[in-house]
Amino acid sequence: MSQLSTQSTAEDDIVLLTVPADGGYLGVLRTATAGLAARLHFALDEIEDLRIAVDEACAMLLAITRRDAELECRFSVTDTDLTVEVTAPTVSGARLPAESSFAWKVLTALTTAASATATGDRATIRLLTRRATTD
User: Fold this and answer.
1) Residue ranges of the chain with per-residue pLDDT less than 70
2) What CA–CA distance (Å, rounded) separates 75 from 37?
3) In the prediction, which pLDDT does 5 show?
4) What is the DSSP string of 50-90?
């Protein structure tokens, strides 16, 4: 079952979305990503790049996630930035791909910044995309 909640702060909006850790639900995260990026008036190519990056990040996590797990996706929206953090519980001893891997090259090429943390039995991938300025 998917869960969606929104929290507003003085500085940004937070959207939390939880879906089963199953590839069949990644479309929900891609659609939410595109909708929030459109809200920030990202260009169409920026929106598509971010959708691809979220898909890649989720695929990286699904490869090391426990079978009965859920993906927790936190979207932080500011006037110019969209930050997406995807977190999942991992199997014992699991590791994310190395930062020199093709998957990480994709993430860093498609976003302003990408990072990951793994602590205990959870891993998080964080993607920051800043809207291109039009001068």
Assistant:
1) 1-12, 133-135
2) 10
3) 42
4) HHHHHHHHHHHHHTTB-TT-EEEEEEEE-SSEEEEEEEEEB
- β-partners of residue 4 are 17
Q: Find, among 78, 2, 85, 87, the residue nearest to 36 by Cα.
A: 78
Reading the block at residue 121, the tokens are 């039995």
Ordered by where they begin, the domains of the chain are 3-130 (3.30.565.10)
pLDDT digits (tens, 9 = 90+) for 81-98: 999 999 999 998 888 888
Q: 110, 112, 53, 64: which is closest to 87 by C-alpha?
A: 64
Residues 6 or more apart in contact with residue 62 via CB below 8 angstroms: 21, 22, 23, 71, 88
- What global pTM score does this model have? 0.86
